[in-house]
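Quick look at the format.
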Amino acid sequence: MKIKSAEFVISNSNVAKCPTTKIPEYAFIGRSNVGKSSLINALVERKSLAKTSGKPGKTQLINHFIINKEWFLVDLPGYGYARVSKSDKKTFQKFITNYFEQREQLVCAFVLVDSRHEPQKIDLEFMEWLATNGIPFSIVFTKSDKLNKTTLPKNIESYKMKMLEIWEDMPPYLITSSSSKMGCDEVLTYIDKLNADFKD
């Protein structure tokens, strides 16, 4: 898939105010500081479509971007925000939950996971929640450029082993780097395929 256009559409905290068109959408979510905004910008080849920050928790709304006039990329707040109040955390959690439970246009959630770290309880619990609620998702390992060629596959394999302690099968996964653009084409090809299936 070639990115011809990527435009901001709307930000809000009320799922009822999200776009009402039947265009397929793909949600990107992960723990704060997982590199979500950087990966989104790398995917759509824009420097600042999604706002990046050194401080975790920059994204605090549901952000819709229309890509190639054909599908929505949805940038969601991270879970496990380190620097927001408990009341803000509850608010975010509520509209994230509402989003996943109510958006019929959602084709797939991309759960971003830092490839440098061991499986985190909060990520595993979130993926379990998605599965329990019948929400399709794929794992996107980020920051793969930070690891050498030996450590990266070892970390991925370790993650798979941990997942398979609970899961019958490993969910689909992709390995990416916003810096080197590794895996970006694969993510877009995956979305392209899902878009074709959505039209059928």
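Next, a different chain entirely:
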Amino acid sequence: MSTITTGVEKQYSDSQKLAARARLNREYTIAEVGWFSWVARQLPLKGGNRILDVGCGPAWFWAATVKELPEKLELTLSDLSPGMVQEALERCRPLPFEAVTGQQADVIALPFEDGSFDSVIAMHVLYHLPDPTHGIAEMYRVLKPGGFLAVTTNGAGHMRKIYELTTVLGSPPQDPGGAAFGFEKAERFMQAKFGNVAMTQHPARLRVTEPEDLFLALTSYPPADQASEAELAEFRNAIAEAFQAGDGVIEAEKKNGLFVSRKVA
């Protein structure tokens, strides 16, 4: 079955489909510190670091956090989608980085020399790979000794009450990203390659009050984005019933984690 973790080229040719899911998280997450800022504060970056962002998407992270980061960072934006790389470059080049470059690239065959970067960032990317260990090995290769890899992903049970609604469309009642590459796999695979890993979880929950925003987010990826009109009508009814049962609100626990491993010098 096609899910959010498959059909990458079609899903991410540009940021349109991703934007629906991003809006749901941006508008309805309840947290003391927002996700992007929280991640930025955890990263052990230093001024002048050379950074590779693997699967950069539209680079919303860098635009949101540039004022919280060290100065004189050299940023390389890479993504399998040329459209995403172009959008990321347009967004980041006006920002106060020391340098911003872009490169269309596959994480399992990065076009960079060994030891090219002080840090590699891969945010919610590795669950798209059939074998995430290949991507981790490539990112290890391009890191300098002493450099670090930062990976984010979802854990089991992430937004379960939300994903349970998608069973109407034939999807399993769980976050597909967390199922494909969750906390346990992230910790195990990174420990195996680096010999060390530190994990932290972002404390947050989702409180959705607008049914249409939920509908648009959950129909922005397979199989829902290929559903028939009758199936979509049934899905809308399921969402409406869930909101009615919750007195106009659907709440769900979020499980977003950050894993950091350092390449031993």
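The mean pLDDT is 94.

See the schema section for token definitions.
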